[in-house]
Amino acid sequence: MSRAETALIRSDPTAVVELGPAGPDLLIAVLLHNIQTRALLPDDEQRNYDLYHKYASRLDYQINQFPRRRLLHDIQVLQEELDVVRRVNHWQHECIANFMILLDPRYFPRPAKERDLMYPAEHAALQRTLENLDVEEGELEALNHRVLDLRNKLRQSVEILEEDHGKAIFVFTMVTTIFLPLSFVSSFFGMNFADIRDMEKRQGVFWATALPVTAGIIVIAVFLANHGDKVLEIIIQTLQRWKGQERPSSMLTASGT
User: Fold this and answer.
1) More confidently predicted of 77 and 250
2) How confident is the model over 111-139, as a mean pLDDT?
3) CA–CA distance from 93 to each of 5, 32, 119, 127 (Å)?
4) How far apart are CA 76 and CA 147, in angstroms?
5) Which residues does residue 44 pair with via DSSP β-bridges, in sequence order?
6) Which intervals of the chain form a coiled coil (predicted)?
7) Coil, helix or strand for 198?
8) What CA–CA distances, in Å, run from 123 to 92, 102, 116, 142?
9) Cα 223–226–229 angle (5° rounding)?
């Protein structure tokens, strides 16, 4: 029994092997199959896409529990690695397919009986390798779609958090807007001047002054928050018109002198 036949038997001990002529081409085909199906770690039977599935699951958990923008970098790195692995998988598929065509006796210029006898075993070994590569390609394609879904999911979660933060900031802003005029009025009435402290009126004058000022500031702040862009645009247009009317009058004055 040749070394190629022995390697073929060891690659799949449960399979029924028919003894026949074998050459170095079959040995190369079997070695390629063994290399392609070998696990990444010696004590672990997981394939490369299994590791990426686990990492994607961990990212999914982090997105659900602690969504933050820095996870976008991890997702980007994962997608780049998947692109590289898919590219290598495609190159391997092309290499095996070209090697199969190279061994096919139909493409030989002269027919050879030995090639006709050895090619079926070589074709079977290479075909198993191509099938494994197709399975990996499908898994990597599914992983790529999952990574895209994770990216969209993270963006939606971050947008929801930012919306909640915006609401909290709005609440704090409104509280500040309410109490800032009150603080100003109380500080004004608390100044140690004769014309302020030596008054005969009670604290009602404070509330009569503070409440309208506070209400007015709140109304102005809310109005500017909702229509500030329009107000700014009107001011800019008014200034441009005023400058446009001022130029002809200045030119007429200069020409008259």
Assistant:
1) 77
2) 85
3) 24, 11, 19, 10
4) 9
5) 41
6) 126-153
7) coil
8) 16, 11, 11, 28
9) 100
Which value, in Å, is the radius of gyration of the alpha carbons in the chain? 40
Identify the burial level of 124 via C-beta atoms within 10 angstroms of its C-beta, where 0-12 means exposed, 13-18 middle and 19 or more buried.
middle
Tokens of 188: 């004004």
Q: Which of the residue ranges 34-43, 112-121, 213-222, 243-252 would you say has the lowest mean pLDDT?
A: 243-252
**Of 27, 24, 11, 85, nearest in space to 52 by CA:** 85
Cβ-Cβ contacts under 8 Å for 103 (sequence gap 6 or more): 25, 29, 115, 119, 122, 123, 126
pLDDT of res. 2: 46
* Residue whose token pair is 């030989």: 108
Distance, in Å, from the CA atom of 25 to the CA atom of 212, rounded to the nearest integer, reads: 95
Residue keyed to tokens 């441009």: 240
Work out the average pLDDT over 15-41: 72
* CA-based max dimension of the chain: 125
Cα dihedral value 105, 108, 109, 112, nearest 10: -50
Which is more confident, 72 or 186? Answer: 72
Query: What pTM, to 2 d.p., does this model score?
Result: 0.56
The Cα-based distances of 198 to 176, 182, 195, 201, 228 in angstroms read: 30, 21, 6, 9, 42
| Residue 181 pLDDT > 70 | yes
Assess contact for 100 and 126: CB atoms under 8 A: yes
Query: For residues 201 and 96, which has the higher predicted lDDT (pLDDT)?
Result: 96
